[in-house]
Amino acid sequence: MSAREVVLGRIRDALALAPLPAVTVERAYRRGRILPDQERLELFTDRLLDYKAQVRTCTASKTAATLAEVLADLGARRIGVPAALDRSWLTSWGGTVEEDCADVSATHLEALDAVVTASAVSCAETGTIFLDGSPDQGRRALSLIPDVHVCVVDLSSVAPGIPEALALLGPERPTTLISGPSATSDVELERVEGVHGPRTLVVVVRTDV
To answer: Which positions are tagged coiled coil (predicted)?
Structure first.
């Protein structure tokens, strides 16, 4: 008998066995952790800065002015936005705004000076921002191809830890996790930025939402 026949015979024998009973795995994840707003803000900011992201904080009423300052500091003249981004956020900025859609090519996205999106949920403990493809966040390409990503995060959507953050997300949505600008290290542990996404991440945290 050849080795192939032996292997196939064992597979047939295994398939003929009665199915194993379902096994329940206990998931003892920590849940329900609560942190005061100021503590969550400080922790989230600390983690973002550690990842070499830029952080600006503002009240909801100052969103437009803050974004205008951020985009001016970046030297941005032409930006991309998802279809349902709150356009009142850009009323203080005088550059060109291009609405993204599925027909916009990767080459066109790459030529943008920056992209501005909202966010779904964030995690203070890890400094991670979750995008779930909602209309104010857009498709995944929009936040990965341009070299600069300006992301607006409401402090009310920042969860203390990963279990609490995941509980706020819909499992059926295409989730993208962002922890600082795109970066990797080569075999000599030299950091290289912009390999898999934007080299610059600016997070605008709205503290009174």
So the answer is: none
